[in-house]
Amino acid sequence: MENNDFLFKRITEGIANTDFSGYTIQYPPMFLWGKARSNREILRSWSKSLANNFRHLGLYVHIPFCKQKCSFCRYFSQELAQRAALKDYLAALKKEIKIYKPLFAKFPLSSVYLGGGTPALLSLGQLKELFDALYMSFNLNQCRQISFEGNPDFLSWTKLKLLKKYGVNRLTIGIQSLDSRVLESANRYQSKESFERCFQDARNAGIANINVDLMVGLSGQTAKSVLKTLEEVIRLRPELIHIHPFYPTALTAFMQAGGQLSKEEMDLRERLAKISQAVIRQAGYAAIEFDANGLNPAARNVQLSDAIEHNSPFLGLGAGAVSHATGYSRYVNLNDPDKYCYSLNQGKLPIQSTCRLTQRDEMIYFITSWLRYGRVSKERFRDIFKKDPDKVFAKEIAYLKTRKKIKDTPGFLCSKSANMGEYAIFSKYFYDQKIIAKCRAVLSPLAGRIKRADMKYLYF
Ligand SMILES: C[S@@+](CC[C@H](N)C(=O)[O-])C[C@H]1O[C@@H](n2cnc3c(N)ncnc32)[C@H](O)[C@@H]1O
Ligand code: SF4
Question: How far is the CA of 20 from the centre of ligand 2 (A)?
Fold first, then answer.
């Protein structure tokens, strides 16, 4: 195999700069996906996929509006100019639900995830309307987890009680930092008080698991500021704490305004991530499989871990949401709320692009996503694909062994990448040659600009 490190770094950047969905472990990369398909074709691929009776089936719902856009945010969401937009959006969402209902109604969902954007911007009545539509259209009798992405400023005690009533058992609170100067420079204004109030209310409402999202590497963030935030968060004992190193992409307002991280800032970000990790571990948190550091494996994002561990399907609803009809296709919805609503008002599924999948695509996705979390279980691979990974990927494994980037044991393929940047490069050696060629054709004009020393600065 040839050394493709530079090209793989370019692909990583290509994925990051076009990824608005948070669907970061993309295979095949979304920038290669083809044209949208008709309702009939989409529903046919679901009908074939669901016929396999997967034990795990996820439902993701995206609410792409926020009060204001944080300058670091790489995800698809836009400022909510008028509350009427939420009303129209909800009406369209219900139309989308109606199209899938006849096909999905009898298959039990194992997880539901309401994300954004800021789903907490929905009023009490709108949240009720959304949950009622979900409960009436899907089978939630065996649902293990209902997750909700909550912004403390919009989660009143009454909303939290309502979430609990509708079965939400995992709340993820994004705060990033409790340092008001850091938040202000990121165009974000939540206060320490509103976070603590929301946290305690969620506990009192009986929401079983709480995750807190923090970021390091933001403008103006020092070790002192990060440690202070960590101290205050850890004191509350959330079940999970995510540390996201700030990864600026072309989709962030930060980069769009000409911002860049200097080498020193990237080094500081790496140091802050390491310090945070050490502090969290010292406070009794441990790595949870397919997730962050936590107190309790039940608090992990079940939808994400099912998708990785079992290669299970998930249906994405809402503008910009991704779906995976396992064995058949992946596709993504239009990432424009107006176009999304227009399409559904015409009775048409709001698809932006699609990708037909082969079994090899599924196997490569499985390997690359497991490697992201450290190691691939060969037994699980054989269970799912009825093939031996050592044979299917003999060449790739041999090559990565010579580069000392993988350890091959009888039970596992273990990643030896030193950091996420290296993982992003080396996991791509499992990519299919045809996909590599397509990526090369799309990205080659830029390949000459890459510097080897930059590699460790990549993050997800
Ligand atoms: C899908 S976002 C939405 C979360 C929610 N709207 C909020 O603000 O809390 C989930 C998390 O991704 C992280 N995030 C957003 N942009 C990022 C970036 N450019 N680099 C690293 N992490 C980022 C933040 O920690 C954020 O809480
Ligand atoms: S981080 Fe959250 S609140 Fe900020 S813009 Fe992104 S989705 Fe909206």
Answer: 12
